[in-house]
Amino acid sequence: MKIITILGTRPEIIKLSALLPLLDQEFEHVLIHTGQHYDYNMDAVFFEELNLLKPKYFLNIGSHPQGKQTGLMLEKIEEVLIKEKPDLIIVEGDTNTTMAGALAAAKLHIPIMHAEAGCRSFNRQMPEEINRVIVDHISDYLIAPDEESFQHLLAEGISEDKISLLGSTAFDAVLRNKEFIKKEVVLDNYKLKEKKFVLVTLHRAENTDNVNNLRKIIGALNHLSNLATFVFPIHPRTRKVINENKIEINSSIKLVEPQPYLSFLALLSNCTFCISDSGGIQEEALAFNIPCLIPREETEWTRLVKAGKNILMGTNTDKIINETKKFLIDETELQRIKGIKYPYDDKVSKKIVEVIKQIK
Question: Which residue segment(s) compose the domain that 199 sits in?
Fold first, then answer.
C-alpha cells in the first residue's frame, strides 16, 4: 500500500512525529511538506532533531491570504497525487494544509484519513474550525482523539463505521521526543531555575488579529510579572502586532526568540505552569502534568478543561490576573490541579497503523 502524508506546519510535524517512522517501516510512504509557515532550511533542522526522514516533496507555498494559500496548495498537491497515485492520504488537525490536502485527494477519489478528527470550538469565526468541519465530512477514516470528538462526529451525521476512537498522537509525540531534551542547556542559557518560572505563548489569530484582546492579555501579564519570572517565546506574528500597535511589555518579562521544538519542550517540562492559547501546548502540558491557563474564550480541547487539568480564563484582564494569582500566591491550587489523575492514551500511532492495515 502506498500512503502519502501531507503536512505543512510545525505542530503537524510534532503531532505526527511518532507516526511517520511507523509509516516508513510498514508501507510505501511518501511525505509532502507544503511549506505553509516555514522555509525548508528551518524545517530541515527540525526533521534532523526528531530523527525523521525528510519530505520527498517540499512545495514552498509560504504565507498568503487564506484563499490564495489554499488554492496554491490545491494545485501543487494535486500534481503530486496524480504522479504518485497513492492508495491513502493522511492529514492531521485543522490547518489550511490539512484542508487543501483533503480536498485535493477527495476530488481525485483517493481515500482520506483525518487524524485529530471531531474537535470543535463551535466558533465559525476561526478559520481552523471551518477546516476541521470540511475535512471531517470528506474523509473516509476519522481518528477521534476523545469521546467528545467522537460524539461531535456522530451528531453531524458521520457514519460510526468511519470513526476510530483511538486518542491523540500528541502524547505519543511528547513521550517519544522528550528523550531528546537537554534541559540543563536550555535553562542555563536563559538563567532559569527548574519550576521557578511561568511559560507564556500567544499566537492564535483570535488574539493576534484582535488588538484589543492582545492588549488585555499583555496588560494582565505586565501586572503579574511583578510576582514571578515570566518567559515569553514571542511568535513573529505576535511581535509584529505588538510593535505596530505600540503595546508595551514590561522589561521584567523575559522575551526570547521562538524556540526550536526540543528547547521549547525543555521549557514546558520545567516551568511552574504555562499560559498559552495554543491547542497543541494544552495537550503537551498534560503529558508533563503542567497546568495550562488558556487566554481564549473557547477551546477545542474541552475535555482537559472539564477534567480540571487546564483552566479556560478568557481574555478579560482582571480575570486573567485573578486566575493566575491563585497559582502564584499559594501553591495549594497548583498542587491540587497537578494531583488530578487524568490518563491519556499512548501508542495511538501504532493503533492507527493497525487501522490502516485493515483497509481493503
Answer: 181-338
Question: Rounded distance, CA 119 to CA 272, Å?
Answer: 28
**Which is it for the CA torsion 21, 26, 30, 32, positive or negative?**
negative
Residue identified by cell 518579562 is 253
Can you tell me the distance from the alpha carbon of 204 to that of 269, in angstroms, rounded to the nearest whole number? 22
Domain count for the chain? 2
- Work out the average pLDDT over 31-55: 80
Residue 274, domain member (yes or no): yes
Query: How much is the pTM?
Result: 0.80
Q: What is the pLDDT of residues 187-201, one digit of tens each?
A: 999 999 999 999 999
| Residues 78 and 118 grouped into a single domain | yes
Residue 203 annotated in active site: yes
Q: What is the Cα–Cα distance from 49 to 261, expressed in whole angstroms?
A: 9
**175 in a domain, yes or no?**
no
137, 203, 223, 235: the catalytic one is: 203
Task: List, in order, residues 6 or more apart from 333 with CB less than 8 Å away.
Answer: 326, 327
